[in-house]
Amino acid sequence: MKILLVGGGGREHAMAKALTSASNITLLAAPGNPGIAEHARCIPIAADDVAELVQLARDEKVDLVVVGPEAALVGGIADALAYFKIPCCGPTSQAAMLEGSKAFTRTLAAQAGVPQPRFHVIDNTKDLNAVVRTCAEEWNTLPVIKADGLAAGKGVMLPDSLEECIDATRALLEGSMSDAGLTVVLEERIVGTEASLFFACNGTSWVALPHARDHKRLLDHDKGPNTGGMGAYSPNPDITPEIQTYVENTMLKPVLQALANDGMPYVGFLYIGIMLTATGPQLIEFNCRLGDPEAQVILPRLHDGDFISLCQATACGTLGAVHLRVDPRPVCAVVVCAHGYPEDPRKDDIITVGAQLAAPKGRDCPAPTTTWLIHAGTRLDDTILRTCGGRVLASVGRGTTLAEAKQHAYDGLRNVHIEGAHWRTDIAKTC
Question: Domain range holding 384?
Answer without folding.
Answer: 331-418
